[in-house]
């Protein structure tokens, strides 16, 4: 997703309790504060082991272009959301019609602020923007099956389980783990918000 896609979102997004904004290189320390914790990093695709390595990883322009930050006013950054615009699979003759019609979401929250509905509230706001402002037709997300809080949140958001794969994801611990994939279509989202 390019920064122009974030421009189309009219950031920051605001909920009753949160502000969701684009990230900058200067946010690396705030994000590192919770992403370095084992309760968070064990589920992440990439988990640099020190602040310097994380700073370099976070500053990658491609990463910044897909990373939204979740702020709790008066507290600061409490989480981040990946929003990656994607093409849907399509046959060759209609491939152009499938360009940029869906998004993958991912998230990480500071454990000190979990259990208060902040992640659900923030991701719901991003999903709403995907289906309204961006006009997408589908949003999907995945996680390790052992990360029950993550897939339970997807279910609370109205996403349907599309796959429970067995032993398909190699965790950095060396264990082959099950995976869970969820999705929701624009018409399903609209039926939930009417």
From TrEMBL:
Disulfide bond keyword on record: no
Protein name: Acetyltransferase (GNAT) family protein
Keyword tags: Transferase
N-acetyltransferase domain residues: 18-182
Pfam families: Acetyltransf_3
Gene3D superfamilies: 3.40.630.30
UniProt-listed PROSITE patterns: GNAT
UniProt entry tagged with the keyword Transferase: yes
Organism: Microbacterium azadirachtae
Transmembrane region(s): none
PANTHER family: GNAT FAMILY, PUTATIVE (AFU_ORTHOLOGUE AFUA_3G00765)-RELATED-RELATED, N-ACETYLTRANSFERASE DOMAIN-CONTAINING PROTEIN
């Amino acid at each position: 997703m390019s920064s122009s896609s974030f421009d189309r979102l009219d950031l920051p997004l605001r909920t009753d309790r949160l502000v969701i904004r684009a990230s900058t290189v200067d946010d690396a320390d705030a994000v590192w504060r919770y992403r370095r914790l084992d309760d968070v990093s064990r589920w992440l695709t990439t988990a640099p082991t020190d602040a310097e390595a994380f700073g370099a990883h976070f500053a990658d322009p491609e990463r910044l272009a897909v990373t939204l930050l979740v702020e709790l006013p008066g507290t600061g950054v409490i989480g981040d959301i990946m929003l990656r615009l994607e093409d849907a699979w399509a046959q060759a003759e209609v491939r152009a019609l499938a360009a940029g019609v869906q998004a993958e979401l991912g998230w990480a929250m500071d454990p000190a602020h979990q259990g208060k509905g902040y992640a659900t509230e923030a991701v719901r706001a991003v999903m709403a923007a995907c289906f309204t402002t961006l006009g997408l037709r589908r949003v999907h997300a995945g996680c390790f099956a052992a990360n029950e809080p993550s897939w339970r949140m997807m279910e609370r958001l109205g996403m349907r389980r599309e796959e429970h794969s067995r032993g398909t994801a190699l965790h950095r611990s060396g264990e082959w783990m099950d995976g869970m994939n969820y999705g929701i279509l624009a018409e399903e989202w609209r039926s939930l918000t009417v």
